Amino acid sequence: MSLRAIKNLPDWAESQFAVLCDAQNVIRNKSTQDRAGWDYIVEFDEPVKPDVPLDRQRGSITCRVQIKSKTGGSPRIELKLSNALRFCREPDPCFILLMHRKKDTGLIEYYVREFDEELMTLTLRKSREADRDSIFNTHKIRIPITFRPKDRASDPIEALRLQSSGSGTDYAVQKAKLNATLGYEKSSVSGTFTLALSQIQPFIDHAAGLPASFEVERACFNDKRCGIPARTPIFDGKPLSFKFKTSPRSACIRVKGTNGRSAAFEGQFRSFNLPGLPFDRSRATFTSNGISAVIQGHSEMTLNYDMSTTSRRTLAEHYNLLSLNAVLLLGPVSIALDISGKEVLITDEMNCKPIRNNWINWFDKVLTCLNDLVFNSKKPIFSLDDLGFQSDIVTNFVGALSDGDFTITLEFEKLPPQDITIRNVAYFVWLEAGDSTFTAIVRRPCLIQDLEERQLKVVLGDPVILESTTEKGPASRHLPALRRRFEALKTRLGDGILELNGGDLLANL
């Protein structure tokens, strides 16, 4: 269709848009104020779904459209920054519809472009530049909008319908998120602060995670979008307090003894120094549950570990700390530090001061036993006091599961049959500690059976753990199921089974 006779193309474009909407029974409401940023609010009725209740039917789809027209040249226009900002903030889908008149033929081509992430980014950058330059008349600033080949549409109304079909609550949430986050991909705040020379080392210590305090003379921080700081600082002055911590990296400290035993601790590593300062001024820290380390330059590493009996930790953490102490007891050790899977430091062999007392040895034996009962997915939590305050019960529990001959003597009221044959003793044991209950079902093979008159002496071999569990909660919750499992496993062992205390070996001890 030739439009050479049309003198006012912008008016014709808006009229043509109304005609196109009416032809497809699409509701369009014209904006009465040009400052609104769009020319029309367009509503597309959703078809009624017969299998969906009326109160659950989806409402109409709404979008906002600005009509542009141009004669000749490339399909490229300019948009007021004030209108573009409204498009960014509007939760509905927003579109620019260009009616591009070919200069040589007079034919009209339609282009429909959504105000998408690319245009939002451009708008937010232009806005931040205007703020930086103290330009507040945003309607005088223009941003370029280029229409791409894929934006060309033979039926612009259908193009609007299709591109708006995914709108709704999720669309509005995503658009609001883009409006809040675009341009902040690298950082959102930048600034400077000033220190006295005497405060530099305390600042380095603090930044690396040490408990050091320092004083800042002045700080100035700006909101920064698209790399452009805002005109008005977030803060500018002397702060009452100031915290500055480097981001931690995953790390592991491994302590290895000359006897082959070792302990490893997963934790967080921080390090810091100021550019231009000697490396000896640098500080680094490693923190984990129960262990910490401080590294000063090249020269010194201080390793501290806490074996407080009141601290509640996982079994693995307790076991690791006792393994560390055992390593230190047995002579020189070397310490390696891995950061993000790469070994970055290893010390020479050195002697350290371990904790020496009988309780440490007892705890080491107990935790070694418990560690053998627990699957990796289980994480029982308790304090060493939870074990120490019931040391007799714990000692009996560990003894029932430890290697070594186990002798019992049975005395009968009258002479027993001479053909008694005992092949195994079967029993179960349990221990409640902290938030969990440890259980084990055990058999010990009979090595020696000696019957003298009314006494039967039985020597049993090393225990074979048939089943072990570690469950959260008190023992009373788990004992009924433990007894049932014991009876089922005992049946599978066949004849010649000796059962003590109804299977509960340590009952009433």
SSE order and pairing:
Elements: H1 9-23, E1 27-30, E2 40-44, E3 61-71, E4 76-80, H2 81-89, E5 94-101, E6 108-114, H3 117-132, E7 142-146, H4 156-164, H5 169-181, E8 189-195, H6 200-207, E9 216-225, E10 228-229, E11 235-237, E12 249-257, E13 262-272, E14 283-288, E15 291-296, E16 300-305, E17 313-314, H7 315-329, E18 333-339, E19 342-346, H8 358-373, E20 381-382, H9 384-388, H10 391-401, E21 406-411, E22 424-433, E23 436-452, E24 455-460, E25 464-472, H11 475-492, E26 497-504
Parallel strand pairs: 3-5, 22-26
Antiparallel strand pairs: 1-2, 2-3, 4-7, 5-6, 8-9, 9-10, 9-11, 12-13, 12-18, 13-14, 14-15, 15-16, 17-20, 18-19, 21-24, 22-23, 23-24, 23-25
Helix pairs in contact: 2-3, 7-8, 8-10
Structure report:
It is a single chain. By secondary structure, this protein is of the alpha+beta class. The protein contains 11 helices and 26 strands. It has helices at 9-23, 81-89, 117-132, 156-164, 169-181, 200-207, 315-329, 358-373, 384-388, 391-401, 475-492, and strands at residues 27-30, 40-44, 61-71, 76-80, 94-101, 108-114, 142-146, 189-195, 216-225, 228-229, 235-237, 249-257, 262-272, 283-288, 291-296, 300-305, 313-314, 333-339, 342-346, 381-382, 406-411, 424-433, 436-452, 455-460, 464-472, 497-504. The strands form 6 sheets. A 7-stranded antiparallel sheet has the order 16-15-14-13-12-18-19. Helix 7 (315-329) packs across helix 8 (358-373). The longest helix is centred in the C-terminal third of the chain and has 18 residues, at 475-492. The radius of gyration is 39 Å and the shape is elongated.
